[in-house]
Fold this sequence. Notes:
CATH architecture of the largest domain: 3-Layer(aba) Sandwich
Strand content: 15-25%
CATH superfamily of the largest domain: Type I PLP-dependent aspartate aminotransferase-like (Major domain)
Structural class: alpha/beta
Distance between the termini: 47 Å
Shape: globular
Helix content: 25-40%
CATH topology of the largest domain: Aspartate Aminotransferase, domain 2
Bound molecules: pyridoxal-5'-phosphate
Strand order of the largest sheet: 5-11-10-9-8-6-7
Radius of gyration: 25 Å
Amino acid sequence: MISFAIDLFFFxxxxxxxxxxxxxxxxxxxxxxxxxMVLNVEIExxxxxxxxxVKENIRPTCCAYEKTEFKPIGKTMIRMDRNExxxxxxxxxxxxxxxxxxxxxxxxxxxxxxxREAIAGKMKMDAxxxxxxxxxxxxxxxxxxxxxxxxxxxxxxxxSFIWYEKFTLLGNGxxxxxxxxxxxxxxxGVLRKTTLKTKIIWLVNPNNPTGTILSPKExxxxxxxxPKSALVVIDEAYAEFSKAYDMSESALLTEKYDNVIxxxxxxxFYGLAALRIGYAISNxxxxxxxxxxxxxxxxxxxxxxxxxxAFGDEEFFNETKAKVIEQREYLYDRLDKLGLxxxxxxxxxxxxxxxxxxxxVEKELKNRNxxxxxxxxxxxxxxxxxxxxxxxxxxxxxxxxxxxxxNRRKAS
Length: 412
Ligand SMILES: Cc1ncc(COP(=O)(O)O)c(C=O)c1O
């Protein structure tokens, strides 16, 4: 019980402000009257705290995502929950980082020109159509900050990467969630919700957590029906892992349409998550708008040098891709043998259905030092998202899974 005396003159105003800030309802506080004057307000909520509160629209998140728990990183944990790559690095990366070490006292070149030119060169486009970011997280935040006006609507697929929703809310936009259809982005569903109020359509391709894709042709047909006032952001964080998806074809969409941004990252396939390099491809005007408002310099020398080296290493790219495809097929085969249902993925993770056992399996794996991502965090209680890796790691997962499931069978 918290009690405080209140200045009569400001009584109504103050109580309302405090009540709103702390999400209190009228029932939660009572006034103490004496001679028809308010002397005191008592608040019967333990959670009443007079602290700085985050802005109102981001306090309760709008979709049914679970609050994520902070997980301490144990030294021996196998992290199959973060979609990082354990397929190794290009050998050229260490050399590039070593060469850059003597330059650490000076800021990097403002726009990461050398890296932009390498990326643009491969795609035969002007380097001014590429923007480097401090990971694609920064680019997502920048897009939201630059384009979303208060009250604009932004469409997210559900379940999907939660940060589209968070950045929309930070930009004071309203989130419109469209459920996936057959675990895939429902392009028709998104179009039905698209209006002249729509500012951004956030798409992730392959989708996180399901690993499904819309092909560049499907995207083309979709974007052709989107009003020009809505920006279509295609986050291709996992596209390099895909066998079916043609990234040079999707890049052409940024030439064909004025309202498309493609985001890519060196954090996943290239294994450089710690160095924080992502990039955006769009038309010159959009790249310029974004470039003006990024925090300068938004990248670091080591990251830019490592990314450029990795990007130019075709042999590394082809070998890694072959390993990924082989391990994905291997896992499908083994999951089939375990009798588990899963969604075929174009990424480095697989969404697997464990029915009502999902929570227990996740806990058991954690006890055995293997972390996987609960589908519950995306609103899918019966599923786990498992990032796969090299054969040794996958076998460790599969061995443990089969033991856990066997034990559960015996116990039931
Ligand atoms: C779909 C998606 N987009 C963007 C990111 C952010 O990647 P980064 O900032 O490391 O480039 C992630 C990270 O997990 C992701 O899953």
